[in-house]
Amino acid sequence: MAQVTLDNVRKVYPNGFEAVKPASYNIADGEFVVLVGPSGCGKSTMLRMIAGLEDISDGALKIGDRQVNKVDPADRDIAMVFQNYALYPHMTVRKNIGYGLKNRKIDKSTIEAKVQEAATMLNLTEYLDRKPSQLSGGQRQRVAMGRAIVRDPSLFLFDEPLSNLDAKLRNQMRIEIKALQRRLGVTSIYVTHDQIEAMTMADRIIVMNGGIIEQIGTPAEVYHSPASTFVASFMGAPPMNLLEGRVDGGMIRVGDTVVGNTTLAVTGPVTVGIRPEDLEPSVGGQLRIDVSIIEELGAHRLVHGHIAGQALTMQIGKDTAIGDGPIPVAIKNNAVSLFDHQTGNRL
Amino acid sequence: MKRIKLETILDHTVLIIGSLIMILPIVMLLQMASTPDIETIKNGPGLVFGDQIPVNFEKAMFQADGFSGANTGVRMLYNSMILGFGFAFGKIIVGMMAAYAIVYFRLPFATMAFWIIFTTLLLPLEVRILPSYEIVQKLGMLNTYQGLIIPLIASATATFFFRQFFRSVPEELVEAARIDGAGPIKFFIDILVPLSRTMIAAMFIIMFVYGWNQYLWPTMITTEEDMFTLVRGIKQITQSIDNTNVPEYGRANLLAIIAILPPVLIVIFFQSWFVKGLTESDK
């Protein structure tokens, strides 16, 4: 078990492209941290630097108390689960799981015992003598997990491990991975582009964009107080509504409508963020929304409309009746976030 | 009754004619190997098979016709086997290792090195046979197995095939192996070689047959009779017909049949692997 410390870790490729801008953070022992962001945001590069598959251009990386910048991946006491599982196709499940231990010159009976233990934990016992090609996607994923577990690493790294699975299996594996991590108590870093995985699995989320860390926080913090318009629009499905508005004497306006007030000392143009589920139809509501489309999602509905010429989404319960045309809508208390008009940073 | 399509008839006709053309010389060999030499001299190749095969086999395999008496069929078969296997394994090992270096290590000028190797495909042995001979001679390797095999062991074909194959092996496999603590040599032996099984089999067939059929090089390198290979030994027999009154057609032809057999057996044995190795792409 170990904590991970990054101090101004940075990645610059030989062609001058800065994939990861200097990043500093600390991951506590046993914590499950999810790195999330769109494709090309540097999250995988960050993970690969921690794994040692990619050189660190600058800064210091510590796993436990040891600086590991120059340490070989095999000696970093880590285990990694890859997106395509990266199982050795010619080896049986048993050999796949035990290969890392074999290379560490551990004696055969110990390897066998550990492989059995991992297989039992992952319900793989009956597949131990099969080759990866004879397994389903979910089973292969389990083997990849098994390979990570038997090594008793102080750090687990996951590189989008569920993105090759179908939706149903993904939900199931998500829970399994999380439960397993809880049980083993191993510090874990998990890379994904799926914000639902990030929200459901993480103790803390690190949101990245363009090589920069936009926000580090618990799922609740990231969701309810996004640090920037990027985080606001990336986390949450449907994303947060971002409207052009202005603040005059503490009153927040979108168009001519007052959507709330603020104690912040700002005046002039701002970006107003409101989560779709913080809007609700109400006879006395201060907003007039021009409804154009209603999406039926079963558990709830999404109402797409306009306010002061800007698109807006509202999430309503499945039983809430609603018609077309302008309707009055209310905003729940403390549901309005304000962002700088220029930089997009939270005010 | 099912109607036979014109297309099927056409296809089969072409195939049957093709196989007849391929098989006829072999039938001829068999016929002459089974007929007494005197008959062959009188009538030329015929359609009647004789009973001389055991006699000719005995002569071909165990009788030498040189000065030293060392170039029996058995000896030549043995030499050919060494050349064929040494040639095939050597080329596979060198080709695999060269491809491994080119694909997996960030060598300076790796791409250029590859293309230089590749262009040697345009320079067959015959082009460089004089300098090659001189080197072998100066190293004192004339009339040795090393001299027969080593100068021919570098292979652009094998390097190229293995390079293409290695490039199709997923990058993540390399990374997983690195994390599993497999160094370059372990990765090569534990992962890459087993993954390349079918490729190796395909290369083995091609290279074995290629080595087995070498004629010019063994003729130059081996002057002592106990180093003769089958392919050049057959010629030796027909050359020595001056010594006898009746040319030994039967014996020479039987030796030719024996020379055909090992490559044929290897192709039959490795056939399914061969096809897999050249066509399989889902790695």
Automatic annotation (TrEMBL), chain A:
Keywords: ATP-binding, Cell inner membrane, Cell membrane, Membrane, Nucleotide-binding, Sugar transport, Translocase, Transport. Residues 4-235 form the ABC transporter domain. PROSITE patterns: ABC_TRANSPORTER_1, ABC_TRANSPORTER_2. GO terms for molecular function: ATP binding. Pfam families: ABC_tran, CysA_C_terminal. Gene3D superfamilies: 2.40.50.100, Nucleic acid-binding proteins (2.40.50.140), P-loop containing nucleotide triphosphate hydrolases (3.40.50.300). PANTHER family: MALTODEXTRIN IMPORT ATP-BINDING PROTEIN MSMX, SN-GLYCEROL-3-PHOSPHATE IMPORT ATP-BINDING PROTEIN UGPC. NCBIfam families: PRK11650.1. Belongs to the ABC transporter superfamily. This is Sn-glycerol-3-phosphate ABC transporter ATP-binding protein UgpC. The gene is ugpC.
Automatic annotation (TrEMBL), chain B:
Residues 77-270 form the ABC transmembrane type-1 domain. It holds the Pfam family BPD_transp_1. Keywords: Cell inner membrane, Cell membrane, Membrane, Transmembrane, Transmembrane helix, Transport. The keyword Transmembrane applies. It is found in: Cell inner membrane; Cell membrane. The chain crosses the membrane at residues 12-33, 77-100, 107-125, 145-166, 187-210, 254-275. InterPro entries: MetI-like, MetI-like_sf. The keyword Disulfide bond does not apply. It comes from the Bacteria. CDD domains: TM_PBP2. PROSITE patterns: ABC_TM1. It is a multi-pass membrane protein. Its main location: membrane. Belongs to the binding-protein-dependent transport system permease family. Part of the ABC transporter complex UgpBAEC involved in sn-glycerol-3-phosphate (G3P) import. Probably responsible for the translocation of the substrate across the membrane. The complex is composed of two ATP-binding proteins (UgpC), two transmembrane proteins (UgpA and UgpE) and a solute-binding protein (UgpB). This is sn-glycerol-3-phosphate transport system permease protein UgpE. The gene is ugpE.
